[in-house]
């Protein structure tokens, strides 16, 4: 099924044209996108390292999650909003980019995993036995999203 028409439509939206046509809109949006990704990865990095049993052994992962969940959730919201803006400004380029679809797929997987399995691993004061695997897989997924996003500029 050819969905190129959808990418063309996205490319022609007012928001996409504004981001593409304004000198500072794209770089500013991309900067905010990357800052939000940094907040997300930094927050998850410390939580997942603790889930994996590394460092900060006096801190309970569930408590860390409670302290950092608003940073994580808000950074995800900002990442999605700015990501949509960046996509709309270069939708037809994204269609032909070999890294774009893997990035979107990884992002969907990471979001589902984060709000299901990862949250369950952090839901109790004493993490389950499989928590180290949950933390490691979380880091792998989220860093893969970042790497695939970075690859978009080079493919």
Explain what this protein looks like in three dimensions.
- The protein has 155 residues and is mainly α.
- It has one domain (10-91, 98-151).
- Helix content is 78%, strand content 0%.
- It is built from 7 helices and no strands.
- The chain has helices at 4-11, 14-21, 25-51, 61-89, 91-96, 100-121, 131-151.
- The two termini are 23 Å apart.
- Along the chain, the helix and strand elements come as HHHHHHH
Low-confidence stretches: none
Provide the domain count.
1
Percent strand: under 5%
| Helix content range | over 70%
Shape: elongated
Mean pLDDT: 92
Largest sheet: none
The radius of gyration computed from the alpha-carbon positions, rounded to a whole number of angstroms, is 18 Å
Q: What's the count of strands?
A: 0
- Helix/strand-derived category reads mainly alpha
Count of discrete alpha- or pi-helical segments spanning 4 or more residues: 7
Q: First CA to last CA: what distance? A: 23 Å
Any chance you could write out the topology, listing elements then pairs?
Blueprint (H helix, E strand, L loop, with lengths): L3 H8 L2 H8 L3 H27 L9 H29 L1 H6 L3 H22 L9 H21 L4
Helix pairs in contact: 2-4, 3-4, 3-7, 6-7
Q: Concise description?
A:
The protein is mainly α and 155 residues long. The protein has helices at 4-11, 14-21, 25-51, 61-89, 91-96, 100-121, 131-151. It has one domain (10-91, 98-151).
